[in-house]
Each structure stands twice: as structure tokens, then as C-alpha cells.
Design a protein that fits this description.
Shape: rod-shaped
Strand content: 5-15%
Structural class: alpha+beta
Number of helices: 6
Oligomer: single chain
Largest sheet: 4 strands, mixed
Number of strands: 4
Radius of gyration: 65 Å
Helix content: over 70%
Length: 257
């Protein structure tokens, strides 16, 4: 068998041309496409990794923020609870204080009402007792008792001293026949007792004292001398009046006693 080297050479040339053409127009574009595809895939993978890393970072940040939010919420809840408890204690304290104040006010009002009622009862009882005493003394009083009252009145006149004597002296020395001193008694004074009083007054104040004599039944068993707003008196009624005033000033003490 004879080899056709021309044909072999042509076939070899055709193969070389085919390989060149395939490399030129088929293999290289495929390689470029594969490289581009690999580059695109690598880029996408890199982007995916970056996105994943960013997602992890955002997830960690979210978790941190969520934890901080939980802590802040717990702190606010604790603070609100404490504030609510403090406000509740304050309101309870105010309520207790208001209740205590109201209770104290009620007790004070009740005590005041009780004391007022007690004082009123004591006062009315005192008034009735003194009124009865005055009536009894008025019924028992007679001329001999009034005569004795004159002697006691003169003794009291002689016992006056100091500022009381000075004030009474000024008032009596300012009297005259037109504006005499007033001498009052429950009974008509006998001439002897009236003269004794006149003499005692004249001697005590060194001049004649003009007198106007009146009968006053309310001056129970006593004698009263008044002039220019000054008064000198002795009577059982005065004792009763003084005692009544003392009881009215201290009704609770007297009632307790």
C-alpha cells in the first residue's frame, strides 16, 4: 500500500487549520465565557459573603439593641413600680393623716360640745342656785340685819387705802348738792345709821360729802356707795355675784370640784 504523503500533508494542514480555527473561534470564547462566568460567580459569592457578614452584623446589632431595650424596659418598669409604690404609700399616708385629722377634729368638736353642754348645765344650775339664795336672803333680811350691814360698811370704809382710797376720795370730793354721791340700801336706813355713815365719810375724806339716799331691794343685806364711776359696797348679794362670776369663768373646774 502506497502512502499519499500529499494527502497526508493536506489532511495534517487541514487539522492544524481546524485546530487553529476552533481555538480562535470556539475554544477561546468558551474559555472567556467560562472565566467571565467564574468571575461573576466569584463576585456573587463575595457579595453573598458580604451580605451574610452584614446580616450577621445587623443581627448582632439587633440582638444588642433588643437586649438594651429589654434592660431599659425592665429599668423603666422597676422605676414605674417603685414610683407607684411610693405614690401609694404617700396617698395612704395622706389618707391616714386626713383620717386622723378628721378623727381629732371630731373628738375635739365632741369634747367642745360636751364641755359647752356641761358648762351650760353648770351655769344654769348656778344661776338657779344663786337666784334661790338671793330670794331666801331677801326674805330673811330685816331692819336689824341692815343695821349690822351699816356697821360692816363703815368698817370697810375705814379699811380702804392706797389707790382705791385715792380714786374714791377724788370722786367723792367732786360731789356737790347738785351731783351728790348715791347711797343705796335694801331698807330705809334709820336716822342713826345714816348719821353714822355721813360722819364716817366726812371724817375719812375731810369734808362734808353730799349724799342721795335710795332704797334698792336688789342690794340684799348690804349698802352701796357710788360716785363718779367709783363704788364702795358691802352686801351678801356682792358675795353671791362674785362667786357666780368665778364659777362662770371656770365652770369646768367648779363642776369637777
Amino acid at each position: 500500500m502506497l502512502i499519499d504523503w500529499f494527502t497526508v500533508g493536506a489532511q495534517l494542514l487541514n487539522f492544524i487549520i481546524l485546530v487553529y480555527l476552533m481555538k480562535r473561534f470556539l475554544y477561546q470564547p468558551v474559555l472567556d465565557a467560562i472565566a467571565a462566568r467564574e468571575h461573576k460567580i466569584a463576585t456573587e459569592l463575595a457579595d453573598a459573603a458580604a451580605t451574610k457578614a452584614k446580616a450577621h452584623e445587623q443581627q448582632a446589632e439587633f440582638k444588642q439593641k433588643n437586649q438594651a431595650f429589654d434592660e431599659q424596659r425592665a429599668a423603666l418598669l422597676n422605676e414605674a413600680t417603685e414610683a407607684a409604690n411610693a405614690e401609694r404609700e404617700r396617698l395612704l399616708g395622706e389618707a391616714r393623716e386626713a383620717a386622723e385629722t378628721a378623727s381629732a377634729a371630731r373628738e375635739k368638736a365632741l369634747l367642745a360640745d360636751t364641755q359647752a353642754l356641761h358648762g351650760e348645765i353648770v351655769r344654769q344650775t348656778q344661776q338657779q342656785v344663786f337666784e334661790i339664795a338671793r330670794r331666801v336672803l331677801a326674805d330673811l333680811a330685816d331692819a336689824s340685819l341692815e343695821q349690822r350691814a351699816c356697821a360692816v360698811f363703815i368698817q370697810r370704809l375705814h379699811a380702804v387705802d392706797g389707790e382705791t382710797l385715792a380714786a374714791l376720795s377724788t370722786a367723792l370730793k367732786a360731789t356737790s348738792a347738785k351731783a351728790p354721791a348715791l347711797l343705796r340700801s335694801a331698807f330705809d336706813l334709820p336716822a342713826e345709821q345714816l348719821a353714822a355713815i355721813q360722819t364716817a365719810l366726812d371724817e375719812t375724806f375731810g369734808q362734808t360729802i353730799a349724799l342721795k339716799v335710795e332704797t334698792a331691794p336688789e342690794v340684799v343685806s348690804g349698802i352701796e356707795l357710788s360716785a363718779q364711776g367709783q363704788k364702795l359696797a358691802w352686801s351678801i348679794a356682792d358675795y353671791l355675784t362674785t362667786l357666780s362670776a368665778a364659777l362662770n369663768d371656770h365652770p369646768a373646774e367648779m363642776g369637777t370640784a
